[in-house]
Amino acid sequence: MEPPQPAAAVSQASSHFQLEPIPASVLAEKEACRRDAAAKLGACMTGCAVLDEHVLLGGFERGTVVGISAEDEEMAVQLGLQTLAYSLCHGTVTTGLVVTPKPASVMLAGLRDAVKAELKTRGAQDGRAKPRLRECLEKVMLSCVFDLDGLWEVLADLDRPGGSEAVDQQDEEPPEQEEKAGQEGERATIEVEEIQDSQDDDDDALSPIQSHSSQEQPQPQPHQESRPKQHRPGIILVTHFSSLLTSLFSHREKSAAHSALHLLSSHLRHLSRNLSSSPLIMLLNSTSSPALSGPTTTASSSAPTAASPAKQAPLDPTLRSIFNPPLPPGYGPYSIRRTKPSFGLVFSQLLDLHLLCTHIPRTKSDAEAVVQRLVEDVRMAWVVEVLLDDVGVWEGTRGVRMEREQKWTAVGVEGGRIKGAFEGVETGEDERFASTGEVRVVRGFGGPRV
């Protein structure tokens, strides 16, 4: 009987897959080159000066994964769509992708309103606003998904070589064809494709504009080769992400769900770092809060499955709002806000940058009205703060990077756009905190930083 040779067999099998160690200096140089290239593409601004300049310190950097958690999830959607509309109107990005579990008509209406508001802010007249509106809408792809598997299909199509070539054809549509196709300037011209679980073998259906343009407006092959990278989206919005996570944890075992999210986290970072467009990926999330959180309620009624056993445990520092300090002795449960992002660390592990949008009383008198439960008399403001910043602000030099964690500002929604909440907050450097000092929560917090 011949003796077994397990060691030799293993050595022979693994000899073809040996990984040589890579010096840290090589990885650091590669990362610096990547971030330099992303900086040359330009940051994606929200269009709210106080948020872009004093909280984000220059806007959202390309090639990153950003999460926005909001008490009213529609606030997160509006901030994401406003960022997309601003970037399209100013030419920072050439194409965008919106992935949503909501009906297409709802998202199209929100996108159209966001672009309209941006064009109005830029002073576009009615004669030029309609063609510009149609032009911006034609640059956005929309995919409706119902679970995380559908999201995977959309992301896989982005990483497939030549998977969306027809977007170039749509962007190069002749003016006379555009006029014929868009007699109604306010009618969205985005072709919508719903991606279901049964469409695993339908790879070409993932690009909505592809099916529309490949049939009606074919282009010569030499012309397509002249713009080989334009089809890659510069911004990818995934709306109502908590709905996708709820579905995931409802239909899979906990360990399998966490494994799927770990793979998704790696793939999102791969796309943001390696696609030619260095896309900004935005995941729009809701918040959750215990029943004892008083008048403050959450837009999402479903508590995250993964976080429900730890409701009474202290929040992780990367999930705690600066307006959510630990409960001091002698104070009742209504004296503290306990709002936190839905799914907590399960969600934040996907992100490079995490923003939290919460409602707080606008002034001291409004905070007192909250204590007295005079909810109908309370004026509220939105506070946008940075919970997590793993990447820092890239300045192209070595040394300590500026961090955005715990920076915040107060904003409001006016005329369909997110603006500074107080008069004078966006007028200049000297006045940027002139009114924010009046922002108060129940226990008296206020000022530009806590």
Automatic annotation (TrEMBL):
Region (Disordered) location: 162-230, 290-319
Regions of compositional bias (Basic and acidic residues) in chain numbering: 177-190
Compositional bias annotation for Acidic residues: 191-205
InterPro entries: P-loop_NTPase
Coiled coil: none
Sequence ranges of Low complexity compositional bias: 206-218, 290-314
Database matches in Gene3D superfamilies: P-loop containing nucleotide triphosphate hydrolases (3.40.50.300)
Protein name as catalogued: Uncharacterized protein
